[in-house]
Structures are given as structure tokens and as C-alpha cells.
Amino acid sequence: MLSSLSSNLFNPRGYRARSVFAPAWLAASLALLLSSCSSFDLDGSSSLMRQLEPAAVSGAAVEASPEHKKLVAMFGGQYRAPAAEALLNGLLARLAQAEENPGRAYRVTILNSPAVNAFALPSGNLYVTRGLLALANDSSEIAAVMAHEIAHVTTRHASQREEAARTSELRQTVAQVLQSAQRGEEVQAIEKLSLASFSRRQELEADQIGVATIARAGLDPYGAPRFLESLGRSTAMRESLTGKSADEPDVMSTHPSTPERVSRAIAAARQIGAPGVGEAGREEYLTAVAGVDFGEDPRDGLVRGRRFLHGKLGFSFVAPEGFTLNNLQSAVLGVTTDGNEGLRLDSVRTPLETPLDEYMRTGWVEGLNADSLRLETINGLPGALAIASGAEWKFRVAVVRLGGEVYRIIFANRTMSPDSDKRYLAAINSFRRLPPREAESLRPLKLSVVVARKGETTASMAARMNVSERAQDLFMLLNGLRRSGPLDAGTRYKIIVE
User: Fold this and answer.
1) Which of 336, 329, 345, 447 is nearest to 400 (CA)?
2) Which of 135, 180, 483, 488 is the most buried (most CB within 10 A)?
3) What's the rounded mean pLDDT across residues 364-392?
4) Rounded to whole angstroms, how far apart are CA atoms 130 and 283?
5) What is the DSSP code string of 150-204?
6) pTM for this one?
């Protein structure tokens, strides 16, 4: 919760690939209601990367450095998976020998994050999340990701972007000082577009270098477009609740559209050879990732259907019927299938001597109806309830004190009928302390590799997974399958188990 809850790539029981967000208009309404709610963007590590780039040091020194420790802490700590580490380091050794200027040494750190992410430092240290390990399907795919990140370092993309940013800021300042405000805004827009295009060129350049590098290492160059396709499908599923098309052009994006990257990666691979050239390494990869944790770390809270449990903070909460929950770093968000209702659960630290009704009036929630405010006891915990209104939305707001934290629960609806308010109140009253024995029993889900039996299908395999929603979509995504139906008997596939 806030800094206590980690971002989530896969919501194991109420699945949407990567992060699930409410539709943009609903998310905006919930955000506007809160006048002081912070968040952290996992993809916003570029400033730290720029700090680390000038100093290339030994691998041992990197692990001991404050920067490395800070970076690892940002992504949930280091995750120990000896078999996966050995495979990745072996692939890195092959990539190092296949570079245009061989001789550098690389080593990997697996991060305990369900997000799909990877990056490299000039020191030779690469970081790969366990969420990325789950999405990749063979050695050539994961090698393509690592070769791509290495290419960013060897071409000094981070320094180039920093220099471009400084140039843009200077031009913008000159324009605003020497020209009219309107002209300054025009220059600013042009410079932002230029920076976005520059970043897209960097991504495409890193893709091209990565494809060539894995091919020289004897790996399948088509692993790059295969992984990019999986990443695109993951992104599309994530955006299925945002109201924004995955293919909608966004000139401010720091990455090119996945279809463009896929097509260019395929073209680069075709210049090397026909499909089938190079080693895919599927079997060795599946063996290495079997048993790796999947989804949320229990220390950061778990989604189990409509229930959210946090062992470390010691509470549980059950959303109303029809809601899908997602555990982000800044909050737990929920949305209904039709997108007409949403919820947010987060926390703040407040002085114990501050009465909850007084806290409700401090301005953190806008449009508060003071006459609706009342103190309540919720499962033995002090609480307060109120109603708030916006231009188009009605909100049921509650706060509950547990230990030194005040937990804030907000439901949003356009109409707030008596029936919907009754459902929200029932959910608020589900907030309770989590018994220590139950908290200690929480376990992460894991990737398991199983052999398809004769007659097995994507549906029957998905039924073997501990996923309550969109299990078949998740199974197909995790295994790079494009269509549902029969599976190849005797072939190994990834599933999710407890």
C-alpha cells in the first residue's frame, strides 16, 4: 500500500496481463477525488540509470554499491533462482563473444518483481524481472531481450537521451524568453515530438543490434519478434480496460508501437536466414524457469479473486461481486467488467491522536458531504464513512485505522443507487484484521512445467491453473500460443500452480 505494496504484472487470480487499470475516465475521476495521492512508475528508472552510467565498475563492486542496492530495492529485492541464473549467465557469455567488439563480461541479477522489465548497466550487470522470465518461452527470446538492453549501453543511448533533453530544455527556454508565449508552446511541442522520435529510433536500433547479436551467438534470431509479439499481446490485455486501443498512435510514447518493432525485427531476422535457423533452446529454458514465483509476492499483498490479503500489514478486504482487483504499488484498484464502477484502496500514516472524522475534513477528498460524515466501528477497528460528489461521479468514502496506518476505501459510481451503496458498505465492512496464522500461510503462485496429455486442449490445460478469470487467455499468453484448441501431446507447457 503506497510504498508497502508492489506493482503487479500478472494478477494471478483476477488476471489482466501486466497492470490492470480502471477505464481512463474512471481512473481520472478517482485520481481527481484525491488531492494528495502519490504513485511510483516502475518504468521511471531512467534518472537512476543516468546516475549510474558514467561509472563502469566491476561486477562485485556493483553488488556492493549503494546504487545497485537502491535499484534492487526499487524492484522488490533480488530473487534467487539458481537454475535460471545459470542459464541466463551462460547466454550472456555467448552474447559477449558474439558482440562486434567482444571482451566485455556480463552477469545477471533477477529482480523479485512480477512486472515485465529488463535493463543493463555499463558495468556489465543486467537486471531481469521474474515477470519477464514468465513471459519468455525459450532461450532465444530471453537472449534477445538481454542483447537489446546491452545494445542500449554499448550505443550510449542513455547519454544521448540526456544530452537531447538538455538541448530541448535550452531551446524551449530561449523560445519562451525571446518569442511570444504562443510561439514558445509551439517550440515546446516540436521538441517533445523530436525527443519521442529519437527514443523510438533508439529502440529500433537496439532491436536490430540485438537480432544480429543473438544470431552470431548461434541462437534463433526470430526469438526477438516472438517475444515482442508476446509483449504486444500482454500490453493489449492490460489496456483492455483503459478504453484506449493498443494500436492507437501516441507520439509522446518513449517506445515505438509493438507492431512496428515486430515487423522490423522479422525483417532483420529474414536477412539472416529462414525460420528454423539458430537454436531456440525451449526445453532448457522451460526446465530453468520451472518453480519460479509467479505474480505477487505475499509480502506485498495477494489478490485472490475478489479478496485482497496482506500478511505483512495484517488485513484483508473483499470487493463486491463483479469487481476485478489489481495490486499496484500505490494502491489496490478495482473495476467492474462494464467499467461503470471502480474502487481504490490505499493507506496513509496519520498521528494516532487525530480523530478520523477530523482527518476526513483535512481536504484529501474533494466534494465531501460533511452532513454524511459519521464515525463507525468496522470489525472492531475505528472507522469513518462519508459521501462525496464530483461533476459526474458519486463516491462512497471510508477510512479505517489499523495500527499506525489509516486505510482509505473509495467507491465510484455515476448514480450511487441505494443498491450499489449497500454493496459498497458491505465491502467496507469486510475490512478486517488478518489472523496471524492465515497471514503466515500465504504462499506465492509458481510456474510449473507440465506435459500435455493426449487430447489435451488450451481450455483443459487452463482448467489446471489456479486462475479464476481469463485462465485460457493467460495460458496462451504464457506459452506463446496464437489460437485456442488442441495441444501437441508430449509437449511441455507452462501453467500456474500454488
Assistant:
1) 345
2) 135
3) 94
4) 18
5) HHHHHTTHHHHHHHHHHHHHHHHHHHHHHS-HHHHHHHHHHHHHHHHHHHHHHHH
6) 0.72
96 band by pLDDT with thresholds 50, 70 and 90: very high
Same fold? 2-10+303-441, 445-497: no
Say if CB 318 and CB 443 are below 8 A apart.
no
Residue 174 has phi, psi (to 5 degrees) of: -60, -45
d(CA 327, CA 344): 10
Contact 349, 405 (CB under 8 A): yes
Three-state secondary structure call for residue 419: helix
Q: What is the pLDDT of residues 432-456, one digit of tens each?
A: 999 999 988 888 999 999 999 999 9
In the CATH hierarchy, which top-level class contains the domain 445-497? Answer: alpha beta
Rounded Cα–Cα distance for residues 57 and 239 (Å) = 39
Q: Are 467 and 13 in contact (CB under 8 A)?
A: yes
Q: How far apart are CA 142 and CA 79, in angstroms?
A: 17
Q: Per-domain residue ranges for the chain?
A: 2-10+303-441, 77-292, 445-497
Task: Collect all residues with Cβ–Cβ distance below 8 Å to 371 and sequence separation of at least 6.
Answer: none
Q: How far apart are the first and last CA of the chain?
A: 24
pLDDT at residue 50 in the model:
33
Q: Are strands 381-389 and 341-349 parallel, antiparallel or unpaired?
A: unpaired
What nine digits make up the cell of 208?
Answer: 536490430
Alpha helices by DSSP H, listed for 370-435, are 418-428
CA distance 39 to 420: 28
pLDDT band at 468 (very low <50, low <70, confident <90, very high): low
Strand partners, 386: 397
Cβ neighbours for 153, distance < 8 A, ≥ 6 positions apart = 53, 120, 121, 122
All three cell numbers of 186: 509551439
Condensed to tens digits (0 to 9), the pLDDT of residues 346-375 reads 999 999 999 999 999 998 888 999 999 999
CATH number for 2-10+303-441: choose from 3.40.50.2020, 3.40.1000.10, 1.10.3370.10, 3.40.30.10.
Answer: 3.40.1000.10
Residue 38 backbone zone (phi > 0: left; psi -120 to 50: alpha; other: beta): beta
The neighbour count for residue 297, using CB atoms within 10 Å, is 22
Q: Can you tell me which residue has the cell 513471459?
A: 135
